[in-house]
Write a structure and sequence with these properties.
Radius of gyration: 27 Å
Strand order of the largest sheet: 1-5-6-11-10-9-7-8
Protein name: Histidine--tRNA ligase
Structural class: alpha+beta
EC number: 6.1.1.21
Number of domains: 2
CATH architecture of the largest domain: 2-Layer Sandwich
Helix content: 25-40%
Distance between the termini: 47 Å
Main location: cytoplasm
CATH topology of the largest domain: BirA Bifunctional Protein, domain 2
CATH class of the largest domain: Alpha Beta
Strand content: 15-25%
Bound molecules: histidyl-adenosine monophosphate
CATH superfamily of the largest domain: Bira Bifunctional Protein, Domain 2
Number of helices: 16
Catalytic activity: tRNA(His) + L-histidine + ATP = L-histidyl-tRNA(His) + AMP + diphosphate + H(+)
GO molecular function: ATP binding; histidine-tRNA ligase activity
Oligomer: single chain
Largest sheet: 8 strands, mixed
Length: about 425
């Protein structure tokens, strides 16, 4: 047998059935609470001007310095495959003037994202997110709403092991004093050259350094919670109490930081222990200054993105069955050419009537076709032999019980609809 010469690029993979359906089901479950809560659907291009991410996500972040798929087009434009969705969605809001209409603007999206990361379990170069953003309000109820909707989405998939980590990074009222205090502390540590540079450039990022020796040294570091202004503290307390009202458990994590620079105040991550090192199944936060960074007016925002690939892995880690269904309810088995023509019309009519149906093709015999019927997941097979045709009937076989009965061909669609209702 010939070996295939092409493979999916490193860090990417194909989704074939039934995993393909499982991924669709995961995305649907993430979107369902949003669609039922007043969020409109937005779709932006898979690539953007490179500067959008450099500005929006932050020049010194890992994403921008190491992980972007950037290239110059034939026309000389510098573009990047989107590594995340928030900067593009905000760009689209500003460009389309949505912020000039009624506020807040609530949006959701779903799509592919690209990061040139070192591939490992749960970390891919092409991955799938469902995201949500609320723009034009500082109301802490929006922050809480988003967290509740994410928790409800995970619950609806049957997941029980997702934990919510919560922090506030403070606004421009609180951050400078904290940044200075953290910097002062970090400068006393014995750190390598690159980390020392990070201390000067972006000290909060050092909190995210996973190396055990750094984590140990950070145990004594000042925490943001002690530096929050009264306004920021009140905002954070309101988010916390609204979550409690909604019976959402969360863990206060004053050292939580995330790999994107746009965050202000509320910051959260959804983590799962079944995934190994890549434990974040989703995350987000508030970004009250991003619009201005992108040249827009003041437009505070908050949002999240949930990782569909990692959520599916978390479901497997909990032993949950793959969600989503492959297959049909009815499978037609014609025997002979005349029956095949009749079956084609019948299956078309069933599909048009909203019944998921398929038909054996290629003139297979009864045995092969019945095997195909079993594989299809159908509850009923409709066998049409030449004698059945003469009598104007088909045999409807219940594939669970094995029982079979003749049904008039012109009543078949209605009959099956009733059986399946
Ligand atoms: P993020 O934390 O970079 O946030 O990504 C959100 C989720 O996407 C992660 O928690 C993870 O589940 C998934 N993810 C990220 N990178 C990978 C990867 N290489 N392989 C597999 N899954 C991955 C954002 O992207 C922000 N835009 C979220 C946000 C929206 N903040 C405010 N609004």
């Amino acid at each position: 047998m010939n070996q295939p010469i092409f493979r999916a690029p490193r860090g990417t993979f194909d989704l074939v059935p039934p995993r393909g359906e499982a991924m669709l089901a995961v995305r649907d479950a993430m979107a369902a609470p949003l669609r039922a809560s007043g969020y409109g659907y937005v779709e932006t291009p898979s690539f953007e001007e490179t500067r959008l991410f450099a500005r929006g996500v932050g020049e010194s972040t890992d994403i921008v310095t190491k992980e972007m798929y950037s290239f110059t087009t034939r026309g000389g434009d510098d573009v990047t495959l989107r590594p995340e969705g928030t900067a593009p969605v905000l760009r689209a809001v500003l460009e389309n003037g949505l912020h000039r209409g009624a506020l807040p603007v609530k949006l959701w999206y779903s799509g592919s994202y690209y990061r040139y990361e070192r591939p490992q379990k749960g970390r891919y170069r092409h991955f799938s997110q469902v995201g949500a953003e609320i723009l034009g309000t500082e109301d802490p109820a929006s922050d809480a709403e988003l967290i509740v909707l994410a928790v409800d989405a995970y619950r609806s998939l049957g997941l029980s092991g997702v934990r919510v980590l919560l922090n506030s990074l403070g606004s421009s009222e609180s951050r400078p004093a904290y940044r200075a205090a953290l910097q002062e502390y970090l400068r006393t540590l014995d750190l390598d050259e690159e980390t020392r540079r990070r201390v000067e450039l972006n000290p909060l990022r050092v909190l995210d350094d996973k190396r055990p020796e750094i984590q140990k040294a950070l145990a004594q570091a000042p925490v943001i919670t002690d530096y929050l202004s009264s306004g920021d503290r009140e905002h954070h307390e309101t988010v916390r109490s609204l979550l409690a009202d909604a019976a959402v458990d969360f863990i206060d994590d004053p050292r939580l930081v995330r790999g994107l620079d746009y965050y202000t105040r509320t910051l959260f991550e959804f983590v799962h222990d079944g995934l190994g090192a890549q434990s974040a199944v989703g995350g987000g936060g508030r970004y009250d200054g991003l619009s201005e960074l992108l040249g827009g007016p003041r437009l505070p925002g908050v949002g999240w993105a949930l990782g569909a690939d990692r959520t599916l892995l978390a479901m497997q880690a909990e032993g949950l069955p793959l969600p989503g269904r492959v297959g049909v309810d009815v499978f037609a088995v014609p025997l002979g050419d005349d029956a095949a023509r009749r079956a084609f019309g019948l299956v078309t009519a069933l599909r048009r009537a909203g019944v998921a149906a398929d038909v054996a093709t290629g003139g297979r015999g009864l045995k092969g076709s019945m095997k195909a019927a079993d594989r299809s997941g159908a509850r009923y097979a409709v066998v049409i032999g030449s004698r059945d045709l003469e009598q104007g009937v088909a045999q409807v076989k219940d594939l669970g019980s094995g029982e079979q009965e003749p049904v008039a061909l012109d009543r078949l669609v209605e009959h099956l609809r009733v059986l399946l209702a």
